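Proteins fold reproducibly. Next comes a concrete instance:

***
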Amino acid sequence: MNSSPNTERVRLARELHDGLAQELAAVGYRLDQVIGDTQLDHKNRRSLRELRLTLSGVINQVRDEIFELRSNTNKSLDQQIEEQIATVLAGTDITYEISNTAQLECSNKFELLRAIREILINARAHSGCTEIKIEIADKQITILDNGSGGVTQKSNSFGLIGVSERLALIDARLEISSLQSGTAVRILF
């Protein structure tokens, strides 16, 4: 049996496809059936459509990860960050802007992307923000939101603990600043 990294990547892609991706798709189809129920009221239908849009974003992300595992050509970190933002903020009224002054090269992009995702989810869920700005610079990514500082209000959040642990694995660190205009979260690597 071949135990090369490429073989392991293909095995993992197959497991993701045959397990998680299929289960998520099945949940999506069931959700579509519920949304189509003629007895469902407008308010609940709208909420379920928002949930379906979020689920579709997660399904697309899993498919992208399966593709990444199976292909030898990887998307740039910048492109993956942009896709991550679009997925997390899908179905919300939160606008986002990305300013990019550096092409990021990072050998640990999986950990970095997961950290960014958790920070975005926290901003979306806890800050009450309407706008998120992402500034990509050399060895630093800054995520600014115009919310009420939800990230710093729960400093013992398991999500932020996980982000800090994830970043420590790649010799990176997290800085959080509460500003009058919102919250700034910096990933330094």
Remarks:
- The beta strands are 95-100, 131-137, 140-145, 173-179, 182-188.
- The mean pLDDT is 85.
- The CA atoms of residues 32 and 168 lie 41 Å apart.
- The first helix runs from residue 5 to 35.
